[in-house]
Design brief:
binds nicotinamide-adenine-dinucleotide, single chain, 288 residues, Rossmann fold, 6-stranded parallel sheet, alpha/beta, 3-stranded mixed sheet, N-(1-d-carboxylethyl)-l-norvaline Dehydrogenase, domain 2
């Protein structure tokens, strides 16, 4: 059997290093990005002139795109391509359960299998190839993706057979991450107001019951040094929390914390467009 040819669409903060790790694992990858493929393409990839060109060469296509709207537009292009080699589309983007189900339907009409595979671990995890890959889709298609998933991920979880189930787990994770970041910012500002410095607060909390991903990672590595460089845009985190809240509405599950978080992230994003999500600390501290 001929070796698989892979395609990768969306070479941003996450897509470019993930693609580099696929190439590092010895896979042949053609790439495309709407911004500037030649600039963003990782070394060793083959540049495709368009989505259409890529669809005619690659049998499996990975997506790492900003949101569900863009994913649907690209899926429509894939499904409409006249010359098609592709049989499987794997979406690493965060889009939400309904958007994943819709993408799956759009592709199924063209005989293409969709695998829902959002990731967690940030840009650092994408560079290290240690992402958590949360997968839902048909068993056989997921089995066939063992090598590429192993190249980008450290932990791969098959959470169910249906597109959208992985998105649900990804959204609830990001809601928890966003809540940890916002609540930690508020708590740190409270401690500082009492004259205790940030590092001391983190030292105490990190060996106590309040520790979380913000106290253990985002604060010591991005906020204390003042670099605010987690590589995850506040716009994207705000999108994820809003999507979580929207999908909680669809599911009819409780939203008391979710609605407060979504309002807070929206306000921070309106105030600080273009910032990294760790800069919510600066918003809450009134530093800007
Ligand atoms: P990004 O904005 O850095 O990258 C998105 C890329 O998609 C850009 O290079 C853009 O030019 C390209 N693009 C946009 N529209 C396109 C189109 N129609 N055709 C082809 N390319 C197009 O975003 P990112 O931070 O890499 O995130 C990508 C996805 O991964 C998002 O859904 C995000 O929520 C999710 N995610 C991000 C992180 C993170 O820490 N950055 C972590 C986990 C998941």
């Amino acid at each position: 059997m001929a070796a698989n040819t892979y395609g990768f669409i969306g070479l941003g903060n996450m897509g470019s290093p993930m693609c580099a790790n696929l190439i590092g694992a010895g896979l042949s990858v053609q790439v495309f990005d709407a911004a500037d493929t030649a600039v963003l393409a990782p070394e060793g990839s083959a540049i495709a002139a368009s989505v259409g060109a890529l669809v005619s060469e690659a049998d499996t296509i990975f997506l790492s795109l900003p949101d569900g709207k863009v994913v649907h537009a690209v899926c429509a292009e894939i499904a409409a391509a006249s010359s098609r080699q592709v049989t499987t589309v794997v979406d690493f983007s965060t889009t939400g359960p309904e958007a994943a189900a819709r993408a799956s339907e759009m592709l199924a009409e063209a005989g293409i299998t969709f695998v829902d595979a959002p990731v967690s671990g940030g840009k650092a995890g994408a560079v290290a190839g240690s992402l958590t890959v949360i997968v839902s889709g048909p068993d056989k298609a997921v089995e066939d993706l063992a090598v590429p998933f192993g190249a980008v991920g450290g932990n791969i979880f098959l959470v169910g057979p249906n597109p959208g189930q992985a998105q649900a787990v990804k959204l609830l994770n990001n809601f928890l991450s966003a809540t940890a970041m916002a609540a930690t910012s508020e708590a740190v500002v409270f401690g500082q107001k009492h004259g205790v410095d940030m590092s001391t607060i983190l030292d105490v909390v990190n060996v106590s019951t309040g520790r979380n991903t913000a106290t253990m990672d985002k604060f010591p590595n991005r906020v204390v040094p003042g670099t605010f460089d987690a590589g995850f845009a506040m716009a994207l985190m705000t999108k994820d929390v809003a999507l979580y809240l929207e999908q909680v509405g669809v599911a009819g599950t409780p939203d008391a914390v979710g609605s407060i978080m979504s309002a807070l992230w929206n306000a921070a994003h309106d105030d600080m467009p273009g910032s990294d999500f760790t800069e919510i600390y600066r918003y809450i501290a009134g530093e800007k």
